[in-house]
Specification:
Elements (H helix, E strand, L loop, with lengths): L1 H4 L9 H124 L13 H15 L1
Amino acid sequence: MSDSRFLSRRQNYERFRYNDEVDDLKEENQMLKEQITRYQTQIKSANEQLLMLKQRYQMLINELSMREKAAEEISRLALKEANVIIETAQGNADLIIKEALGSAKMVFIEINRLTSQTKEMRTDIKSKLQSMDALMETFQIPEISNLDYLSDETRAPFVDAKKELEK
């Protein structure tokens, strides 16, 4: 092959030197082709890894998006439930307050009734005490006559009663 290229030695070609040079270039060319093949394999592998990473990234993005939506939904439901609980608590509190006010009103009415009755009873008792006092002022205890004519046994209860009255 190199013979056909460098046939003419007559024109000052050094066939061996050029053949060696061509062989070196062929060898270098072969090495470069192998290196290109390795690089192409590496590029192909890198592209496959890139594709896998892109797919994994997309899966993670989708999963994150789903989790965010789930978190938003949970948050929304929790807020809704909290509002329902608050409304129920407010309704219950209003009902309890109404019942307490009703009970307080009943107690107040009862206290007013008892106060009124107490005033009436006080007035009534005061007037009865005044009448009793007036009666007591007009009431005179009769003098116990001489008990000497009675025997000692018969006279004892009367003497005890007189002592009681004197106290």
